[in-house]
Specification:
about 80 residues, alpha+beta, two-stranded antiparallel ribbon, 3 helices, about 40% helix, about 10% strand, globular
Length: about 80
Amino acid sequence: MPRNYRAEYDRYQGTKKQKLRRAKRNTARAKMVKAGKAHKGDGKDVAHKNNNPFVNRLKNLVMQSKSKNRSFARTKTARRKSK
């Protein structure tokens, strides 16, 4: 069965909450570009140190590789390991 992108968008990506979170992440990227820390096509992600996309202070933002930003160490019960 092929993946149903329309249903996926309707159920998750298109919800009001997820649209707002995506907009905040885009704002964070724009802030880092303006600060000269990110560049178009650099292949990096803007990471939020506290994992909250609503907190876009420059002190809370850091540039990371995509592989480092999109995964994290987990416990045996699949929760995030504390630092």
